[in-house]
Specification:
This protein is of the alpha/beta class. It has one domain: Rossmann fold (3-Layer(aba) Sandwich). The chain is 50% helix and 11% strand. It is built from 9 helices and 5 strands, in the order ααβαααβααβαββα. Strands 2-1-3-4-5 form a 5-stranded parallel β-sheet, with helices on both faces. Helix 8 links the parallel strand 3 and strand 4. The radius of gyration is 17 Å and the shape is globular.
Amino acid sequence: METLKQLIERYPALASCKKEIEQATDLIIKTFENGNRLYICGNGGSAADADHIVGELMKGFLKKRPLTETQVAAFDDKDLAKGLMQGLPAISLHSQSAFLTAFLNDEDPSLLYAQAMYALGKKGDTLLAISTSGNSQNVSNAVNAARALGCNVISLVGNKACKLDDISNIIIHADHAETYRIQELHLPIYHYICATVEHHFFKV
């Protein structure tokens, strides 16, 4: 597994947010250790990043993550159990099309993610809010809903001061101002986080 030092050697622009990357990784580990969930939201490319992160956490990323003998023993169908992987509970808030379309048809679209977060979240969960500008209204509304529930908030943004600065527990400013360049830096950040979290929980 790549260390944070090695990551920054490959992406020197990430040196400015090294501390926040470490803090975010530790918070996500704590979230899962406590039996809580990670929720993720964003728009456009950031929504795609949210799904990407879910994919790395819900199944094996760099490791196979086979079920333990105890977990296998709970199954009547052992072959089924041996084909499964241990997952970490991560949910992208835009992944529920029936709810999304119903809400968008009937209600204020800017409250979409806030409604999803408020319905699903519980105290101790973590919301990862991804916004290249850090000012997306639907994302900041989700953050405020998460805070009302007693959830933690990590925000992944660009290098400018933004709305999410004042309402996030941890904010990772990727050091670029242009949208596609910010997204290019977001990917190695969350790949590192996912790999480190996986390594913590799955040693083999």
